[in-house]
Amino acid sequence: MWLSDNGLKEIGCSARVTRLLKQMEDGRMNVLVQGVAPFRLLLAYRGAPLPAGDIELLDDTGVDADPGTAGDAHDL
Length: 76
Hints:
Elements: E1 3-4, E2 7-8, E3 11-23, E4 29-44, E5 53-57, H1 67-74
């Protein structure tokens, strides 16, 4: 899930970790991931240490990316 400055986004993408790039002494990691499947957030779990919730998988066959959302993601 993308937790932007404007809050948690309702559309996300599951990801598969493909490579560990670096592990820091404090336990944090830099990882390379591959997007797997888009999903819609149905219910956010409030109070969880990381964004979490119930989702439904979406069919993205033949769907073009929303230009505004794609642009926001590239601006990060």
